[in-house]
Write a structure and sequence with these properties.
single chain; alpha/beta; Maf protein; Rossmann fold; eight-stranded mixed sheet; six-stranded mixed sheet; about 35% helix; globular; Nicotinate-nucleotide adenylyltransferase
Length: about 500
């Protein structure tokens, strides 16, 4: 039998009745929605040192300093820093031995009168897990999905209570803490697409795994993190940027993947309406790909993202199996051009109408959604090693009833062939490289970037025997960063993924 989730009232009261907790609330943009719960349930005098709002921009700047935007991560961090510092300055000497101080803050844009704004916000808590303890912190980005302002405010208040309760009572179980954020809510009302844990209480937490949990639990359809492991909020990274993405399994990253990406980047940056310095490149892994062998294997997940990090890549974890859903997600964050690069084998799968039976309009509806925002597909050739023939855009085998549609998309420029590829890499197939690694065949190193090969061998990734476990093996070279981030990557096994 599943455990009963405490109500929002019970959570707020549990915080109020915990005599160790004492702190401040600062909320901007949607009323005092979180602190209201603690006033309502009783016992708030033992918990709340101060509650405030600073709606006027000049007042907010005077308190927290200048900021380009008022609903952003930096404004939230400024609020948490100042309010927590004030608590310690004013109260540490008088009650610091018995009190664990905290500061809660949020800065939110709820639905305006005309319904024309993006409804989202930043929320966080800086706190001491125990009296006199070093600080810990949780910040998150939330999107309110209700269509009415009052409902958005209600949902925001519930998420805030869940965050406070989780920080105080579940900080030793971050997986449970994340799951509890949706208590007394549903994914129809709230989306959390970014969460970051830091500080002494979370010193063993890997925020990349926490990003994965958001998608796994349905709190978000996608999550993003940088090569150095920093979690990113997608809209802040993608806003007004041209986007180039490659979907893959990345087991492991190979030279052909890098070649595919570099060829696509050169083509993409040559588009008339693309500023080359603004292009954001993403390596996308779908949840279905991660679950290819059943449940998600966290070790396997971390091996993949570590390999991507070694090549300087920004990673997007998504639950958008169909490409048209991925395209819609990206278009939500940017009105600039979007490009997707894939192998010819994936393009063949893309034109298999068995994947679109759930759409009323079938494959036509799918392609209408996929290409409606001037999206382009950049296709990498597929080598037939028996005949030496290359499968390209101009000789792709398409079902007869779809050839007219295919030719229309090619002629319109929605599907373009990549020509600036390195023929030496066309014979590399990721599944074979993985098998060579597992079997201890040293030839695998020839098919992956040096920095990736060194990482795999040093850490024993993908079943590789470590250098000190083998004989007559040259010592691994120290890992060095690539000269510039390479971005997206390899084709992958499974439906709708590049197979090269």
């Amino acid at each position: 039998m599943p455990l009963e989730r405490p109500t929002t009232e019970r959570k707020a009261l549990a915080v109020n009745l915990d005599s160790r907790r004492y702190g401040s609330f600062a909320e901007i943009g949607a009323g005092q929605e979180v602190v209201r719960w603690f006033f309502r349930v009783g016992g708030a005098a033992g918990t709340i040192a101060k509650s405030m709002s600073a709606y006027d921009m000049s007042v907010s700047d005077a308190i927290y300093g200048q900021c380009e935007r008022y609903v952003c991560r930096q404004r939230l961090q400024d609020m948490l820093d100042r309010e927590h510092a004030l608590n310690l300055e004013r109260l540490k000497e008088s009650r610091g031995d018995t009190t664990a101080f905290f500061a809660f803050a949020d800065t939110v844009s709820a639905r305006n009168f005309h319904g024309t704004n993006e409804c989202h916000g930043w929320m966080g808590i800086r706190f001491q897990a125990h009296p006199r303890d070093q600080d810990s912190q949780i910040i998150l980005h939330v999107r309110m999905l209700d269509t009415e302002n009052a409902l958005q405010q209600e949902a925001l208040g519930i998420v805030g209570v869940n965050l406070l309760y989780g920080a105080f009572f579940l900080n030793h179980e971050p997986d449970q803490l994340i799951e509890s954020l949706l208590d007394n809510l549903s994914t129809r009302r709230i989306e959390i697409d970014m969460i970051e844990f830091s500080g002494i209480a979370f010193r063993h937490v890997d925020n990349r795994v926490m990003s994965l949990r958001l998608v796994q639990l349905g709190l978000s359809k996608a999550a993003m993190f940088s090569a150095d492991g920093e979690v990113l909020q997608p809209s802040e990274v993608l806003y007004k940027k041209p986007i180039l993405v490659e979907r893959g399994s990345f087991r492991p990253l190979t030279n052909v993947n890098i070649d595919m990406l570099e060829a696509a980047k050169a083509k993409f940056k040559g588009e008339d309406d693309v500023e080359s310095n603004d292009v954001v490149t993403l390596a996308e892994i779908t949840m279905r790909n991660l679950k290819a062998n059943g449940d998600i294997d966290l070790r396997d997940f971390l091996e993949r993202v570590d390999v991507l990090a070694a090549a300087g890549m920004t990673v997007l974890i998504s639950d958008y199996f169909e490409y048209y859903r991925l395209a819609a997600y990206l278009a939500r964050h940017s009105k600039k051009k979007i490009g997707i690069t894939m192998g010819a084998a994936s393009l063949i799968e893309l034109f298999d109408d068995k994947y679109y039976t759930t759409l009323d309009g079938g494959i036509l509806e799918s392609f209408g959604r996929l290409f409606k925002n001037d999206l382009k597909l950049y296709i990498y050739p597929l080598l037939n090693r028996e005949t030496g023939e290359l499968t390209k855009v101009d000789n792709l085998e398409i079902a007869s009833e779809l050839r007219t549609l295919y030719r229309y998309l090619v002629d319109k420029g929605c599907i373009e062939q990549l020509e600036a590829y390195d023929p030496e890499h066309l014979s590399t197939f990721s599944r074979e490289v993985l098998r060579q690694i597992e079997q201890g065949d040293p030839a695998w190193r020839e098919h992956v970037p040096v920095v990736v090969a060194d990482l795999i061998q040093q850490r024993g990734y993908f079943g590789c025997r470590r250098a000190n476990q083998t004989t007559k093996t040259a010592p691994a070279q120290p890992l060095t960063p690539v000269a510039a981030p390479l971005a997206p990557l390899i084709p992958a096994a499974g439906m709708m993924t590049s197979v090269v």
